[in-house]
Amino acid sequence: MIREYTCEYLHNTGKPCGRPCVRPESCRIHWKTKSHFPCAVCGKPTGSSSGQCQSHIGSKSADLQN
Fold it and tell me: In what ranges is there compositional bias, type Polar residues (predicted)?
């Protein structure tokens, strides 16, 4: 029996894909894509390893320079 999973890939809008799939990783379209997580500051989806979107990574580095 084949188990059915739901694709949890986050689109740029912040909504999950939601397609049914047989792989636990993601659906047939998104299984090789980089994982996205909500930004720790604003909640915008980001693939950054720091957990912050591009806007907040830049502001943090600017604060460190001052």
Answer: 46-66
